[in-house]
Amino acid sequence: MKWVAPSMGAVLANVMFFSPLMVVLKKRKLAQPLGKLNPLPYPIIFVNCINWLLYAFVTRDPFLFFANAPGLMMGLFFTISSLPLADPATRLRIELLLYILLGADLLVSGVAFVVNDDKDTRQLILGLFGNLVLLVYYAAPLSSLWEVVQKRNSASLYWPMALANCANGFCWTVYGIVRNDWFLIIPNSIGSILGLVQLVFRLLFTAESDEDDRLPTAHHTILKTSASAATLVEFGEFGGKGGEFRDNGGDSTPSGAGEKTVDASDQINGNYSINPTYDS
């Protein structure tokens, strides 16, 4: 168990940190709003991994290092990606959480490495702060729990991350018991329970589809708009035979029905006007 539990823990930690990758990449690619996706765990992942990497350096623990080094990169990537997709209020919460936790981590690290020379004291300081940040990380998805109960919609609870949290916390709890390290036992046992709570709520309440996922992209909007404009022309909505299309630049082009289509970008921006004329 001395090797099995931490090896599995390192693998599951990376599974946990990488679990939001596909949904974040999708929203980033399509420039979709975050919607019900909860971004608060992302800055916590970043700061949490910084602290546990420092703890790994002090304790010379390779399992902790390889469990958190990829997570630091993923936490930074998720945070950067979610900021432009978040609404102003959510963006402010992400930034405040990142600045507060990162500032606290810098302060704690300064005390541990600059002011103090004792290895055991360094381990104690970093371990206590690591416990605090890790508990905040495990509890972060529960920030939307009240909304889940009120709306009876568990879409904001991302089940792959919850499942990974539960399994990862269990493995690191076992490793902490083997090493008799309470800095590993306490936060990870609680985290495993909190992950289980998320899974239970996910099962109790249905997860309705995020409306933002059904929004068309800009490419689809242009195609749809262009098709609609062509349909209107074809059925004579622009004045029928002998109708006249005039753009805002003052140039006019006569056309019959079905012979002239409106440019999609002009229709979207409203840079056109229709002056119907009729044959006498």
Could you outline the blueprint of secondary structure elements for this entry?
Layout: H1 4-18, H2 21-30, H3 41-59, H4 62-82, H5 88-115, H6 119-139, H7 145-151, H8 159-179, H9 182-204, H10 218-234, E1 244-247, E2 252-254, H11 264-269, E3 272-275
Antiparallel strand pairs: 1-2, 1-3
Please supply descriptive tags for the structure shown above.
280 residues, mainly alpha, 3-stranded antiparallel β-sheet, 67% helix, globular
Describe the structure.
The chain has 11 helices and 3 strands, in the order ααααααααααββαβ. It is mainly alpha-helical. It has a 3-stranded antiparallel β-sheet. α3 packs antiparallel against α6. The radius of gyration is 27 Å and the shape is globular. The N and C termini lie far apart (94 Å).
Radius of gyration: 27 Å
Low-confidence stretches: 212-280
H/E series, N to C? HHHHHHHHHHEEHE
* Approximate helicity band: 55-70%
Sheet having the most strands: 3 strands, antiparallel
For the secondary structure, the number of strands is 3
Name the quaternary structure: single chain
Shape: globular
Summarize the structure.
The chain has 280 residues and is mainly alpha-helical. The chain is built from 11 helices and 3 strands, in the order ααααααααααββαβ.
